[in-house]
Specification:
Layout lengths: L4 H21 L22 H12 L2 E6 L2 E6 L2 H10 L6 E2 L3 H6 L13 H14 L2 H6 L1 H20 L8 E2 H18 L12 H18 L18 H29 L6 H12 L3 H16 L1 H15 L1 H14 L15 H13 L9 E2 L4 E3 L2 E3 L4 E4 L1 H5 L15 H4 L24 H18 E4 L26 E6 L14
Parallel strand pairs: 2-8
Antiparallel strand pairs: 1-2, 3-5, 4-10, 5-8, 6-7, 9-10
Helix pairs in contact: 5-11, 7-8, 7-18, 8-12, 8-13, 9-10, 13-15, 13-18, 15-18
């Protein structure tokens, strides 16, 4: 019985020896002492970006954190972010794919989870020049304005209903509906919810697929970091295969509907699914890549927009001075006889600063997605071995007192005093990342966040629920890759524009 244990023991000893050799060979960044096998997994607090920011204060702006046997390097200031995202961008442009993301992305055949190489360059070019070009964003503007005005109408109906007088509303419900309807119309050309708010069969299936994907991904969390535990958490091949088939089936049905519509009309619309079909041969896109790109857009755009707006509204309710100042600008520039449009943004500088400050204080993806080293590099004078993961703590950088005055204060005026780019050129403010991995839909995100905040402020005055003081609003985050509010925001909306302006401006494009 003892004989079979000998080779197993040798393998374990050799593996540990190899890991020790790597640690001694390289001058790794400092960090909390890891435990055998599990590394720092049990030291990490649930809200990781705050935990890593605390560790950065103790160990320095570049730290080593071990997820099991995998080295993760976290950088927490703008100078080091520039090294990661600009100086060594090419060497740190790969993606770490665990078993679930590998399956969901067909092993990196999409954009988000693709390693840096010819495929990534091709689909990135497609996104930049075609899907998110200024021309296409302009052509799809009516969809954004339709969904934002639908939100206004829904809030107005609810807050003026006799049964709801003085009652608070769940802000997440309304901003989440905009995100959901907007991204599905953008990607699939489908509004799964009718004017009464009832979701159709395809919409329910779409929601179920998304929820099931999250469930499958979470089922493997611990085993992904400790290779020799994976036998205890096997990949549910059948469950992942069924999920992939279900996702693809829905997508193909919608794609076929678009194909038939194009054949009937003789032309393609501006939605992403039509654009991808039109460009399929030019960019040599496989069906896996088309499906992967569509779901990338949904994954990246579904929650992040709603999260940013909900945090922004929480800050505006906590800071009535800022809310009033933004409303005074809207009243002066737009008035009470019409509603805001995206064309007005350029003449609403304070509104733009409000949106920017919300994205600074509460970046929706505070650690970005990890970059994976495809070669040995040095960051901040320390060695980053090949195959290590590198995270940029965007939240810590945005709260760094060395570069931001009173960094925890919600003060949009800071961006009137200094114009700071937030699309990847200024490493103090990185809500959309930077470098080769910068979000191609950054401008779309900025437009929609700004539009939603503009309408919420122009149409309504927002106050805390009855019996609650503004300072009692819970501003803590839920654990996770994106920063949901731990306690969803409740607020009282009071109309401030004539009732005829609180109507949805519906379009069908």
């Amino acid at each position: 019985m003892a004989l079979p244990l000998i080779p197993i023991s040798l393998v374990i000893i050799l593996f540990i020896a190899y890991k020790l050799y790597r640690r001694l060979r390289f001058k790794l960044p400092p960090g909390p002492r890891p435990w055998p096998i599990v590394g720092n997994l049990y030291n990490i607090k649930p809200v990781r970006f705050r935990c890593f920011a605390e560790w950065a204060e103790a160990y320095g702006p570049v730290i080593s954190v071990w997820f099991g046997s995998t080295l993760n390097v976290i950088v927490s200031n703008s100078e080091l972010a520039k090294e990661v995202l600009k100086v060594h961008d090419q060497q740190l442009a790969d993606r770490h794919r665990n078993r679930s993301t590998a399956r969901f992305s067909r092993d990196g055949k999409d954009l988000i989870w693709a390693d840096y190489g010819p495929h990534y360059v091709k689909v990135r070019k497609l996104c930049t020049l075609e899907l998110f070009s200024l021309k296409r964003l302009a052509s799809l503007r009516p969809i954004r304005e339709d969904e934002v005005t639908a939100m206004v109408e829904s809030i107005f109906q609810d807050c003026t209903h006799p049964d709801n007088s003085g009652k608070s509303l769940l802000v997440k419900k309304y901003v989440g509906a905009v995100s959901f309807n907007h991204i599905t119309r953008l990607a699939f050309g489908k509004r799964f919810v009718n004017s009464e708010g009832v979701m159709d069969e395809q919409g329910l299936e779409f929601k179920a697929i998304g929820a099931n994907g999250l469930k499958l991904g979470a089922s493997l969390a611990m085993a992904e970091h400790i290779p020799w535990l994976r036998w205890m958490f096997p990949l549910e091949e059948e469950a992942f295969a069924k999920h992939g088939a279900r996702r693809d089936r829905l997508t193909r049905v919608i794609m076929e509907e678009h194909t038939q519509a194009r054949l009937k009309s003789g032309g393609a619309k501006q939605h992403f699914v039509d654009a991808l079909f039109t460009l399929q041969q030019e960019y040599d896109l496989s069906e896996d890549t088309i499906i992967g790109l569509l779901w990338d857009m949904i994954t990246a755009g579904m929650d992040t927009i709603a999260i940013s707006v909900e945090w922004g509204m929480a800050e505006l309710i906590k800071n009535p001075r800022v809310q009033q100042k933004a409303q005074e600008e809207l009243d002066r520039v737009i008035g009470f006889e019409r509603i805001v449009t995206e064309a007005d943004f350029s003449i609403l500088p304070y509104l733009q600063c409000v949106a920017k400050e919300a994205l600074r204080l509460h970046p929706p993806t505070p650690l970005m997605l990890p970059h994976r080293a495809n070669a040995d590099v040095k960051i901040g004078g320390y060695d980053i071995p090949k195959e290590s993961n590198v995270h940029v703590n965007v939240w810590a950088i945005a709260h760094d007192p060395a570069v931001w005055k009173n960094p925890f204060e919600f003060r949009p005026e800071r961006f009137l005093e200094e114009d700071v780019d937030m699309k990847g050129h200024d490493f103090r403010l990185l809500p959309f990342g930077a470098g080769r991995r910068v979000c191609p839909g950054a401008q779309l995100g900025i437009n929609l966040v700004t539009s939603m905040l503009a309408h919420l402020l122009h149409h309504f005055v927002w106050t805390p629920p009855e019996g609650m003081k503004a300072e009692e609003i819970d501003m803590s985050e839920n654990p996770g890759l994106v920063t949901y509010m731990r306690t969803p925001l409740q607020a009282v909306a009071t109309p401030r524009l004539p009732s005829h302006l609180n109507k949805r401006v519906a379009v069908d494009i």
